[in-house]
Design goal:
about 0% strand; mainly alpha; 6 helices
Length: about 180
């Protein structure tokens, strides 16, 4: 039981440290330019797309049938479309309707990214736990890689929310919550 607690605490630390560090970096940045915002969002999108395309999908194809992989991808797309619809509906029926369109779009992008990353963090935790189950070396390697991978995710979540008009404390709360 002691090992289980240690692995849980290590997974929690490494799984949250990178995202929280990225979130802190995102809120500390003073008025980043539109080019920087575009770069951060594009970098995080490219990072995630490459991980999905070159790591996750090939591994899923090794483990399961093509139909299962396609169904999983479609389910993920549908979940994010539903999330996008819910956020759009919330913004259209709330105090945010008066916002500048670009600020509203940034805030929506940050919220949708936050929800997607919160869902995405669950399998990351499973990966770290499984890695430690296989060996300490693999567990630490996965934990450190995921921690580094989570830094731009935290930035890509915090910067749009902050520049969309959300207060710093609330941004950090959502980053930690995800």
């Amino acid at each position: 039981m002691n090992d289980l607690l240690r692995v849980t605490l290590l997974g929690l630390f490494f799984g949250t440290f990178g995202t929280n560090l990225g979130g802190i970096i995102g809120v500390v940045l003073r008025k980043p330019s539109q080019k920087f915002l575009s770069f951060i969002l594009s970098f995080a999108s490219g990072l995630m797309t490459s991980i999905v395309s070159f790591d996750l999908i090939p591994e899923a194809l090794n483990i399961s049938k093509v139909t299962s992989v396609i169904l999983g991808i479609l389910l993920g797309i549908i979940c994010m479309l539903i999330c996008n619809q819910i956020v759009d509906k919330k913004f259209n029926n709330s105090k945010y309707t008066h916002m500048d369109t670009s600020k509203g779009n940034l805030l929506k992008a940050g919220i949708i990214t936050s929800v997607g990353l919160a869902i995405h963090n669950f399998p990351e935790g499973l990966a770290i736990g499984s890695g430690f189950g296989a060996s300490l070396t693999l567990g630490y390697s996965l934990a450190i890689a995921i921690c580094i991978h989570d830094i731009p995710e935290g930035i890509s979540m915090a910067v749009p929310m902050k520049n969309g008009g959300m207060k710093t404390g609330k941004v950090l709360f959502y980053v930690i919550l995800s």
